[in-house]
Amino acid sequence: MQIELGDLIVAIITMNKDAVGTGGTAPVFYVGNNEHLGELSEKISKILDGVVHDIGMGTYIIVKH
Amino acid sequence: MNKHYVLIVPGLIMGTFARVHMMKSDYRQYPTYPRGYLSHFTLGFIAAGLGAVAVPALIEKEFTAITFLALAAQQFREVRNMERESLDNIEITEMVPRGSAYIEDIAKTFEARNYMAIITALVTSTIIHVFIILKINMHMSIFLGMFVGLAVHIFIKRMIHGEEISDIADVKEAKISFDGPILKVNGIVITNIGLQTQRDIFLSNGLAVEIIPKDENAVMYLSNMGQRQAIQHNAANQLGVRRDFDEPEFTPVAKRDPENGNIVMVITIMKPNIDALIEAVKGTPLLETSKRKPLDSVVGLRLMKNRKKV
């Protein structure tokens, strides 16, 4: 039997330090600009097989569905 | 004993024929060819054998032999479990899974086909026996028995043949759009797609359909998650989904419009062809497990009356 985690935020990538706190289980990656935000999100999502969601305020979350 | 072969052999032939006639391997690739064919042929032959020997056993007053039919029923329930287990095991290897409701439907169908082999064989040997008792020529009796067996087989085949989506709903092309990162189909929110590159793939390779139920019963059928999963699996299976295992965002999604019960489905395809997608959705079998008939209930009738008044 295979057990998997579902609907879990596995990483947070943001340009906005004020929008994201440091608590919680997901690591937070700070980036300087929009281009870097997209690039890093794509790289991490490929490693974790997660889906990149844009929640606004310059923040992307990677969710394992 | 030899006289009973007149009953057993035609029954065995008709029962096995009934099982073989129901065997086809199409886009579902189920049963698989040739190994799955062989195992189902063998089980069908055994089922036909059990049906065919029931009448000779009664003639010989071997009433305990009838208990073998109960054993057969147990055996074929095991066939259902076997099919379910096998499909469950390969589920994780599917790019778009069938879903447990579809698997249950397939497993039930395989069980029912074995019962059909038993019934066809039983009817054939019974009819032959009846005509022999009526002093009708043996060859004629065998012919009539096989003819009635064939008729029963065709009747059961029609009876267990399920409906398709096209029988209960209309399927039309729908429009994919983005509102910022929000993917929408005909205005219904599907999901949030973060990366622009992925949004572009949805716009270039994505296709969407709207499934419009014909009545309230159909609204209930389509609300079933298993039915929607079966539609997604069929569409992906026949058109070729444009995704790999590490691209979960391109998994087909079917969502329901809570206002009217319409279903919208979006899927990314290697070579998009909307007519082919509509055909694939229309041809999806209607699962037994998703069938509901609210219109047959007192509440359903009352709601219908109220609607007519309005």
Description:
The complex is a heterodimer of chains A (65) and B (310). Chain A has a 4-stranded mixed sheet, with helices on one face. The relative contact order of chain A is 0.32. Chain A is α+β, with helices and mostly antiparallel strands. Chain A has one domain. Chain A is 23% helix and 31% strand. Chain A has one helix at 34-48, and strands spanning 8-14, 28-30, 51-54, 59-64. Chain B is α+β, with helices and mostly antiparallel strands and 310 residues long. Chain B folds into 2 domains: 2-161, no CATH class; 166-292, Gyrase A, domain 2, CATH 3.30.1360. Helices cover 58% and strands 12% of the residues of chain B. Chain B has 11 helices and 7 strands. Chain B has helices at 5-21, 35-59, 67-90, 100-133, 138-160, 165-168, 196-205, 216-223, 225-239, 274-282, 298-309, and strands at residues 169-173, 176-179, 182-185, 188-192, 206-213, 253-256, 263-268. In chain B, a hairpin with a 6-residue loop joins strand 6 (253-256) and strand 7 (263-268). Chain B is elongated. Chain A binds chain B through residues 2, 38, 41-42, 45-46, 49-56, 60-61, 65, and chain B through 92, 180-181, 191-198, 245-246, 248-249.
Compact summary:
The complex is a heterodimer of chains A (65) and B (310). Chain A is α+β, with helices and mostly antiparallel strands and 65 residues long.
